[in-house]
C-alpha cells in the first residue's frame, strides 16, 4: 500500500479521504464533524437535515399547510433550519481540524433558496459545497458569492465539459475538485445516461482518465478528482494513487461511514448492513426524480417491482390488438386490452389486486385496495420536496405541475426517507446503499458485529484496509 500524501482541499492540506454526503439526516453534524476531526473532509447533508431545539431535542416536521404550495414553503423553512443546525454541530465536533463540506441535490426543492438560507448564517463554518443529482450550473456562482469552494458531482467527462463551458469557467478559482461518482457502483441516486447500460458496469479508470483529459483542456491540471462509488479498500486503488496520468486524486466513502458509532442511522439499519450479501443492492428506476438509484433489495422495493410487473398497456378505444373491454374505476369505464393482457389482468384481480390505476404511459397497474389508498393519500399529501416529482406530478415552477399524470409506479421519497432515518423501520422503507455494502459481512474489521468510531475507521482506511 502506497503512503497517502495530503492533498489541498478547500484551501487546506488534508487527508485525501472524503466522507460522502447522504441526505435526509443520514450524514449529519455528528458524523461529519467527527470525520473532519481526523484531518479529512467531513460532509453533512443539507437535504432536509434535522433541526434541534435549544435543549438538543429533535424538532418534528409537521406540515400545517392545506395546499402543496403552503407545505412547500414549510419544507424550505425546515430545511434551512436543519442545515444551519447541522453545520453548527459539525463545526463544534470538528475541533477546527480538517474541512467541512455541505451536500445538496440540484433536483431537490428550492435548492438555491436553501443554499442561500444556510450559507448566510454559517458560511464561516462551511468550506465547500458538493452538489449532484442533475446539472448544477449555478452552484459555482452561489458558493463563490460566499467565498466557498464548489464540488460538482458528475459521472462523465462530457457532463463536466458542459458545466464548465456554460458556467464554471467564470469561477475557476473556487472549483475545489470534481467528484466522479460511478453510476453503477455508488449508492443513492446515480447518473446513468440513456446511452449507458445499467446491467453492464464500466471500468471507472478510463472514465476518470477521460475526465482528467477534459479538465486539462481547461487548464485544471492541479484540481483534484474525487473518486466516489465502489471504494472500499484503498489497497485496491494503489494504481490510482500518485498516478501522473490521473493527477491529484482523493477518495470518497459514502457507505462505510454508515456503520460507525457516530452514524445517526438506527441500530436495525446497522445490523442489516452487516448481513448483506453480493447482489443485495438493486439498481432501479423507481425514484420519482427519474434517476436510477441504488438501494438494498427488501420488501419495499419488492412491492414496487410487483407494481410494474402487474402492468398492461391499454387503449381508450378498440384499436388493433386492443379489442377486449375491461372496466376500470368506480364507474366501470371501459378501456381496451389485448386478449392476453385481459387474461393476466383478471388473474391479478382474482389474487386480490383489484384496483387498476392509470399511469402517464397509457398503462394500468394492478394493486390492492390498501395500496391504492396509500398511493392516493401520499400523492395528496405532497409537500413539494423535489423540483419536479413524477409520483405526485408536483413542479416548483409557477404552474405547480409537471403537466403529466401522477405516476403510481413510483413513491413519496420524502415520506420513506424520513421514516427510515427516524425509526427502526428498515425492510418496509427505501434503504439507500452503495453496491459494495455487502463487504461489511466479509470485512474482518467488522467481525462479531463490531461498529467502529469514525476515528477508528479513518485510521483503518489509511492502512489500505
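Q: What amino acid sequence fits the structure above?
A:
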Amino acid at each position: 500500500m502506497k503512503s497517502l500524501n495530503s492533498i489541498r482541499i478547500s484551501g487546506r492540506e488534508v487527508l485525501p479521504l472524503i466522507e460522502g454526503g447522504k441526505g435526509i439526516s443520514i450524514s449529519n453534524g455528528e458524523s461529519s464533524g467527527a470525520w473532519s476531526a481526523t484531518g479529512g473532509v467531513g460532509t453533512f447533508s443539507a437535504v432536509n437535515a434535522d433541526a434541534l431545539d435549544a435543549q438538543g431535542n429533535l424538532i418534528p416536521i409537521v406540515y400545517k399547510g392545506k395546499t402543496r404550495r403552503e407545505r412547500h414553503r414549510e419544507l424550505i423553512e425546515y430545511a434551512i433550519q436543519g442545515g444551519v443546525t447541522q453545520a453548527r454541530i459539525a463545526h463544534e465536533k470538528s475541533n477546527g481540524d480538517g474541512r467541512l463540506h455541505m451536500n445538496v441535490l440540484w433536483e431537490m426543492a428550492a435548492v438555491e433558496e436553501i443554499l442561500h438560507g444556510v450559507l448566510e448564517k454559517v458560511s464561516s463554518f462551511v468550506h465547500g459545497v458538493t452538489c449532484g443529482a442533475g446539472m448544477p450550473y449555478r452552484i459555482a456562482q452561489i458558493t463563490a458569492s460566499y467565498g466557498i469552494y464548489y464540488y460538482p458531482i458528475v459521472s462523465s467527462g462530457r457532463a463536466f465539459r458542459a458545466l464548465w463551458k456554460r458556467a464554471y469557467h467564470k469561477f475557476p478559482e473556487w472549483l475545489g475538485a470534481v467528484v466522479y461518482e460511478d453510476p453503477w457502483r455508488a449508492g443513492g441516486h446515480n447518473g446513468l445516461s440513456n446511452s449507458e447500460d445499467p446491467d453492464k458496469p464500466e471500468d471507472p479508470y478510463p472514465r476518470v482518465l477521460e475526465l482528467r483529459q477534459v479538465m486539462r483542456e481547461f487548464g485544471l491540471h492541479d484540481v483534484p478528482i474525487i473518486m466516489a462509488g465502489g471504494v472500499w479498500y484503498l489497497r485496491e486503488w494503489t494504481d490510482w494513487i500518485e498516478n501522473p496520468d490521473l493527477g491529484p486524486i482523493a477518495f470518497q466513502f459514502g457507505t462505510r461511514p454508515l456503520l460507525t458509532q457516530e452514524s445517526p442511522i438506527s441500530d436495525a439499519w446497522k445490523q442489516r448492513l452487516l448481513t448483506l450479501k453480493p447482489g443485495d443492492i438493486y439498481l432501479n428506476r423507481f425514484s420519482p426524480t427519474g434517476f436510477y438509484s441504488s438501494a438494498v433489495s427488501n420488501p419495499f422495493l419488492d412491492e414496487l417491482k410487483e407494481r410494474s410487473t402487474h402492468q398492461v398497456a391499454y387503449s381508450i378505444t378498440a384499436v388493433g390488438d386492443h379489442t377486449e373491454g375491461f372496466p376500470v374505476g368506480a364507474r366501470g369505464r371501459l378501456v381496451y386490452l389485448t386478449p392476453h393482457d385481459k387474461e393476466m389482468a383478471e388473474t391479478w384481480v382474482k389474487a386480490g389486486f383489484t384496483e387498476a390505476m392509470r399511469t402517464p404511459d397509457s398503462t394500468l397497474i394492478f394493486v390492492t385496495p390498501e395500496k391504492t389508498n396509500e398511493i392516493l393519500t401520499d400523492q395528496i399529501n405532497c409537500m413539494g420536496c423535489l423540483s419536479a416529482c413524477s409520483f405526485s406530478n408536483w413542479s416548483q415552477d409557477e404552474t405547480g405541475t409537471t403537466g403529466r399524470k401522477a405516476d403510481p409506479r413510483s413513491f413519496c421519497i420524502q415520506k420513506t426517507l424520513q421514516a427510515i432515518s427516524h425509526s427502526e423501520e428498515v425492510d418496509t422503507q427505501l434503504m439507500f446503499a452503495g453496491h459494495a455494502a455487502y463487504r461489511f459481512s466479509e470485512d474482518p474489521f467488522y467481525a462479531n458485529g463490531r461498529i467502529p468510531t469514525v476515528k477508528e475507521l479513518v485510521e483503518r482506511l489509511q492502512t489500505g484496509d
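Q: And what stands out in the fold?
A: Residues 68-94 form the longest helix (27 residues).
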